[in-house]
Design a protein that fits this description.
Helix 1 packs parallel to helix 2, helix 3 runs parallel beside helix 4 and helix 6 crosses helix 7. The chain is of the alpha+beta class and 817 residues long. It has 5 domains: 153 residues, Jelly Rolls; 112 residues, Immunoglobulins (Immunoglobulin-like, Sandwich), CATH 2.60.40.10; 277 residues, Alpha-Beta Barrel (TIM Barrel), CATH 3.20.20; 106 residues, Immunoglobulins (Immunoglobulin-like, Sandwich), CATH 2.60.40; 104 residues, Sandwich (Immunoglobulin-like). The mean pLDDT is 95. The strands form 10 sheets. The protein has an 8-stranded parallel beta barrel. It is globular, with a radius of gyration of 28 Å.
């Protein structure tokens, strides 16, 4: 079907009247262009009903309206709308009549229009989004039509949307056999003699394969036409070599002069997948260890609004930092991000749901799961099918009932449905053993406490489960009660996804010799331990840290603190971000990212981070997702002569730290030190230098400098190449407070304001601060670590952005159209 983006010229307002006899458009309606996140527009509110779950932001009931003129030719056409994501409880009305609805919020759905259109007239398309029932999400969901909308047109005989599927039956360096399935629909009352032609082209547009099939489709019949195409010397897709092909499928009426009825065109990849407990996960016959990161779906300052450029930028930065895989948590991934993963080369674990029949929030998808799961699973698989980046499907995240008899049955039903739709990929469930233990938790606690007490490791009076979890998770997750639940939970899937159960990796490999395991969610501080096991054990195919990228919501879970309520599980307002990410929400790499890179063996350059010396010797309140409170800063005014702890993440076998050229000694580095070496010194302004050694030879060095006294605001446009064939829509501008030598002033967190000269739409202005004092649309923010970010739509004319700090420091940039 012919697709065209249908994002412009919508009217939007917050709806206060659910029962209206006349569906008018109120004066408060404003013009918007999709994608649109209505929730991010209002500032965080300490009295939010959603609380920290969504970063103290609430949803409402929203209405979107757009007019569609139906020309006379629509009488002989099939017309529909495609919504890639509307959160949540979406109702699509055409001229006041319900055409489609979707409760989930994360899957593609279609609204057929033909039955409701007035030919030759303007037709009202009204989308009501009912996101006001709270709580409905454990993380920041956003609200509204936050992904793209498309208008689809075709003849009455046409290719069904997402109806061309390309399967690699076999492939090597010489030949690949592709099986093409083309879903056709004949909406006329008479038979149609058809010719189905599929052409395969390589990345340079050269034809590499073709097949022509004749078929007769009877009146009101739907049928899938199968084709087999041979491609010589194929360029196989992998994350390391992401070669893409294009299919062009055309359907003609089989008459003397063939009449084109419909066509479809998109990219795909040629590659094979296999997995077993002895050879691990293999792509094109080569074993791959998954260096993974979990991510949520918001785009930082943009909220949930899903722009192609933002998705591409995020995946590109994660790839450059050493990741080769991401897990979409905990719902199906946006098509825009899938396209980025295909082109850049990033393996994808796509996930179905965060809940099944037991709700985790008062009004979440668990209300609808039983009636809707099959439709939403089908939508996810059809969306993913031609994307070579997708290698794994997770049927659920930390489902409490998964270890019960009925839960295990549901798990298998989900897995079987996926395999029915796609037999080329593997399924798993992301299982938290403690959650799955359910009513056995009390017995597990009693047994673990008894064992640890007998060994003299704890006070036998400990009965607080969270206290026990904090220091003895390993002993908990290997309990036989969890093993029994896992046996049921894992029976219906191909791979066992273990959330925070590293202690089971080795023993389960022995006890269940055919079980393949992936660390589907793991703690960042444990990456050295985890990765050693991934490399050692072939049945453990990878690690997915929580998280690769910071996100709004689950506020405070990764914020280190020294007072209760300022971070961790007890974090209160104004904490709005989770803050456990390798990247902050602006795309700036945090220390954990460099630690991970050292563990992966991808960089020999050491990285220096410093624990906050103003809290030296104090107890750090932190969750298991926090390594320390370290930052890459040697700016600690007022702490001269005071003790400081320096962390160095390094490869090699030894690392040396120097302060202003004077050696502070050498210590073990690399695997022996867990790739994290600590030095204690005294703060003295100047230069910290770390030097890595391997067998006495220097292999890399790095340094941190104290900033000078002069200040300047540096405002620079970020350069990056977007998705091929896509017009750049967003401009990212980085703001940094620097000294006279260009050294970042990492302790400057003063307020800054933004002024725009010319016509430009600023979509976001903020920083990576997990406790922001301003909303991202206010034109004012505070530097965080000396940094801030501006995101604007690419302007149609030249504009100038001027940023001014409280102390009078200014910076400006001119953006050309």
């Amino acid at each position: 079907m012919l697709e065209q983006k249908w994002n412009k010229n919508w009217k939007f307002w917050e709806d206060k009247d659910s029962f209206a006899l006349v569906c008018n458009i109120p004066e408060i309606a404003r013009d918007i262009t999709l994608p649109h996140d209505a929730m991010i527009e209002k500032p965080a509110n300490p009295d939010s009903l959603n609380g920290g779950n969504t970063g103290f932001r609430d949803g409402e009931v929203y209405t979107y309206v757009k007019m569609l003129h139906a020309p006379e030719e629509y009488r002989e056409k099939t017309v529909m709308l495609k919504f890639e994501g509307v959160y949540m409880n979406a109702f699509v009305y055409v001229n006041g009549q319900l055409a489609a609805k979707s409760p989930f919020g994360y899957t593609t759905f279609y609204a057929p229009l033909n039955d409701f259109l007035k030919i030759g007239e303007e037709n009202e398309i009204r989308v009501q989004v009912r996101a006001g029932a709270m709580t409905n999400s454990r993380w920041y969901s956003g609200a509204g039509i936050y992904r793209d909308v498309y208008l689809l047109e075709s003849g009455l005989t046409h290719i069904v949307p997402e109806g061309v599927q390309i399967k690699t039956e076999n492939a090597d360096e010489n030949y690949a056999t592709l099986k093409t399935s083309v879903e056709l629909e004949n909406k006329t009352a008479v038979p149609q003699n058809l010719v189905v032609e599929t052409v395969i082209r390589d990345s340079e547009g050269k034809e590499t394969g073709k097949e022509v099939t004749h078929a007769t489709l009877f009146g009101s019949e739907s049928r899938t036409v199968k084709q087999r195409i041979l491609v010589e010397n194929p360029d196989l897709w992998s994350a390391e070599s992401p070669s893409l092909y294009t299919y062009e499928t055309k359907v003609y009426e089989d008459i003397e002069e063939k009449k084109l009825l419909d066509e479809a065109k998109d990219t795909f990849g040629i590659r094979t997948l296999s997995v077993d407990a002895k050879r691990g996960f293999r792509v094109n016959g080569k074993t791959v260890n998954l260096r993974g990161g979990c991510i949520h779906h918001d785009s930082g300052l943009l909220g949930a609004a899903t722009y192609e450029d933002a998705q591409y930028r995020q995946i590109l930065k994660m790839k450059e930092a050493g990741f080769n895989a991401i897990r979409m948590s905990h719902h199906p991934m946006a098509p825009a991000m899938l396209r980025a993963c295909d082109e850049i080369g990033m393996y994808v674990m796509d996930e179905t749901f965060d809940m099944w029949n037991r709700l985790k929030s008062n009004y979440d998808y668990g209300l609808y799961f039983q009636e809707w799961w099959e439709k939403d699973v089908t939508a996810m698989v059809r969306k993913d099918y031609n994307h070579p980046a997708v290698i794994l499907y997770s049927v659920g995240n930390e489902i409490p009932e998964i270890g019960t008899d009925k839960g295990a049955q549901t798990c298998q039903q989900l897995s079987d449905k996926i395999h029915e739709l796609d037999d080329t990929r593997f399924t798993l469930a992301s299982i938290n053993g403690v959650f799955a233990a359910g009513d056995q938790v009390d017995q597990i606690v009693a047994d673990v406490v008894a064992d640890l007490s007998a060994e003299g490791k704890i006070d036998g009076n400990v009965n607080d489960f969270m206290t026990l979890m904090d220091g003895h998770l390993d002993e908990i997750v290997v309990h036989h009660a969890i093993s029994e639940r896992l046996e049921k939970a894992c029976a219906g899937v191909d791979i066992a996804g273990y959330n925070y159960m590293t202690a089971r990796y080795e023993r389960d490999g022995e006890n269940y010799p055919n079980r393949v395991i992936v660390g589907s969610e793991t703690y960042p501080p444990e990456i050295a331990r985890n990765w050693e096991l991934v490399e050692k054990l072939p049945h453990v195919i990878g690690d997915f840290t929580w998280t690769g990228w910071d996100y709004i919501g689950e506020a405070g879970v990764g914020i280190p603190a020294y007072k209760w309520g300022e971070g961790g599980f007890g974090a209160g307002f104004p904490a709005q971000l989770a803050y456990p990410g390798d990247f902050d929400i602006t795309g700036f790499r945090r220390p954990a990212s460099y630690y991970r890179e050292a563990v992966f063996g991808l960089s020999k350059i050491p990285y220096i981070a410093v624990q906050n010396p103003t809290h030296y010797g104090e107890h750090l309140i932190k969750t298991p997702w926090v390594i320390s409170d370290s930052t890459a800063s040697w700016n600690w005014e007022g702490m001269e002569g005071k003790p400081a702890i320096v962390e160095v993440y390094a490869q090699g076998d030894e690392v040396e730290l120097l302060l202003n050229g004077v050696s502070l000694g050498k210590k073990a580095a690399g695997k022996e030190a867990g790739f994290r070496t600590l030095f204690e010194t005294t703060y003295e302004p100047g230069t910290l230098t770390a030097v890595s050694y391997e067998k006495g030879q220097e292999i890399g060095r790095n340094e941190l400098k104290t900033a000078g006294t002069e200040r300047t605001l540096v405002v620079e446009q970020e350069e990056y190449a977007g998705l091929k064939g896509s017009n750049q829509e967003l401009i990212y501008v980085q703001v940094e407070m620097c000294d006279q030598n260009g050294v970042l002033v990492t302790d400057d967190n003063q307020k800054i304001t933004l002024a725009v000269e010319g016509e430009a739409e600023v979509l976001g202005f903020g920083s990576g601060n997990p406790k922001p004092n301003y909303n991202f649309n206010e034109g004012v923010t505070e530097l965080f670590g000396g940094r801030a970010q501006i995101i604007l739509k690419k302007p149609s004319e030249t504009v100038t952005l001027t940023v001014k700090a409280e102390d009078g420091t200014k910076g400006a940039i001119t953006i050309n159209k």
